[in-house]
Amino acid sequence: MISRRNFGKAAIGAAPIAHAILSGPAWAQTPPPAGAPAGFGRGGPPPKPNSNFGGVQIGVITYSFRQGVAATDLVSILTRLGINSVEIMSNHAEALAGAPAPAGGFGGGGRGRGQMTPEQQAAAQAAQAAARAEMEKFRSTVSMDTYKGIRKQFDDAGIDLRLLCYNLNGNVKDEEIDYSFRMAQALGVKGITSSSTVTIAKRVAPIADQYKMLWGGHGHDAINDPEQFATLESYARIMSFSKNIGVNLDIGHFTAAGYDPISFIKEHHDRITNLHIKDRFRNPAGGGRGANVRWGEGQTAIKDVLLLLKKEKYGFPANIEYEYQGTDSVIEVAKCLEYCRDILIA
Questions:
Q1: Which CATH architecture has domain 4-29+46-100+116-344?
Q2: Which tens digits make up the pLDDT trace of 3-18?
Q3: pTM of the model
C-alpha cells in the first residue's frame, strides 16, 4: 500500500498537471516548433490520451465529476487529464443528448424536505412528477442515432466510451430497462453497470440475454440488506440469473464490507465488467461505516489489486471513482491517476 507520504508526493506532482488542466492544454497554448507540419501546436489537434499503464487500463467514471463539471466539458477534461477510457453516467449521456434538466430544489435553503411547509412539499412533488413525465417523454422519443453521435465525440478524441452506468431503482419499469440497453447499444459500450437490487437484477437478466450484453451490479457495503449487492451470497445469486449478469466490483465498498477483493477478482474475473477504485476503512464491528479517505490512508489494497491486474492481464478496466473530500474534482482525479501510474510503471 502506498503511504500517506507518497500520496502527498503524488499530490504535489499532480499540482502542475492540474494547473495545466484548468488553464488549458499546452498543445493549444504554445507556438509550433520550426519545421512542424501544418496544424501542429496552437489550434492543432490534441495528443491522444493514454491511461493504459503497464497493460492495465485505468479509466474514470464520470460520477467523479459530479460537482462543477458540465457534461459538455467531459471530453475536453478527459483529454487534458490523458484518460482514454471512461464509464459514462446515464445522466451525463442524456444531457449530451438534449434531455430536460432535472427538477430543482424547493424552499428551506437546502435544509431538507422535512422542514418544508405543506405548500412547499406539494410544489416539490409536483415539480418532480413533471420532471419525471418530461424525462419519460424524452426517452420515448430520442433517436438512438443521437447516442451514436455522442460515441463519435469520444472516438474522435481517442477516448474509449467503455461502459454506461445506468442505475435502476425499485420503481423502474421494464420499458426503462429496455431503454437502458438500447442506449448502451447505440453508445457502443461493452457493458452496463448499475446500482440496483437483487430483485431488479432478476428482471434485467432476460433483457441482458436478449441484447447479449454484460450487466454488472455495482457493489456496496450494506451487508444486512439482502436486496443490496454487498455479500458474497448476493453476488453469487445475481450471477446465477444469467451468464450476462456480472459484477461492477467497487474495491472500496468491498473492503468496507469485510471482504478481500484479490480472491474475488481471481475467482470471478470473467464476470467483472470493471472495478471502481477508491480507498476506505473496514466497517467497525459494532456498526457504522468505514471512512472514505484519500488513497493510501485507508485499508483497501489498491496497490495489490492493480498489480494483480498487471500480472494476470485481465481485460476489464480499473476506473477511478473520486468520493473522498478533496479540492476540485479534476485536480483530485489527476492525483488518483498519478497514484495508479506510479504503481504500474515502477
A1: Alpha-Beta Barrel (3.20)
A2: 433 444 444 444 444 5
A3: 0.85
